[in-house]
Structure formats: structure tokens, C-alpha cells
Design brief:
mainly beta; 7-stranded antiparallel β-sheet; 7 strands; 0% helix
Length: 88
């Protein structure tokens, strides 16, 4: 699901993405589930919040886009609970 919220200015327009989808390439299956709506706004070139769970053939990691701040950092959460910050 994709939704938009209009604001006073172009930069105030925000959007959110939720849902799940699956992609199969040969014998590899990728699945994405948005566990917390992924949000962004037209004033920022990055997604700013939300969490998506990504799995490849059953191995799952979570990607946390942050607290709403406009930055290029995401946190990857591995199955054992370890975390790693990555720059996009």
C-alpha cells in the first residue's frame, strides 16, 4: 500500500509504504514484509523511518530506516540480534 499526505509546501508532502511482496529468481526466493510503515517526504532524498524484514531463501534480516531524521543511515538487524549501521 502506498499513501501520500499533502502539506503546505512541496517539501511537506510525505508518503508511506506498507505490505509485503515476494520475488522468485530461478531457485532463489526474496520476501519483503514491512513490519512498521516505511515513510519519507519530498524534502528528503532518503526514506526516514519504518522497518522492513527481508528474507532470502528463509534467512531474514530487518532494516530500520530510523527515527524520522533525514539521513542516509539504516540499521540492519541480524537474526542473532547483532546490529550494523550502513550508509546508503
Amino acid at each position: 500500500t502506498l499513501s501520500f499526505q499533502l502539506g503546505e509546501t512541496f517539501a511537506d508532502i510525505s508518503f508511506s509504504i506498507s505490505g509485503s511482496w515476494e520475488l522468485s529468481v530461478d531457485d532463489t526466493v526474496y520476501a519483503v514484509t514491512v513490519s512498521s510503515p516505511i515513510t519519507g517526504n519530498l524534502g528528503c532524498g532518503y526514506l526516514v523511518s519504518g522497518v522492513m524484514d527481508i528474507s532470502k531463501n528463509g534467512l531474514q534480516v530487518s532494516v530500520d530506516f530510523g527515527d524520522g531524521s533525514c539521513d542516509d543511515v539504516v540499521t540492519v538487524i541480524y537474526p542473532n540480534g547483532a546490529t550494523e549501521e550502513l550508509e546508503l
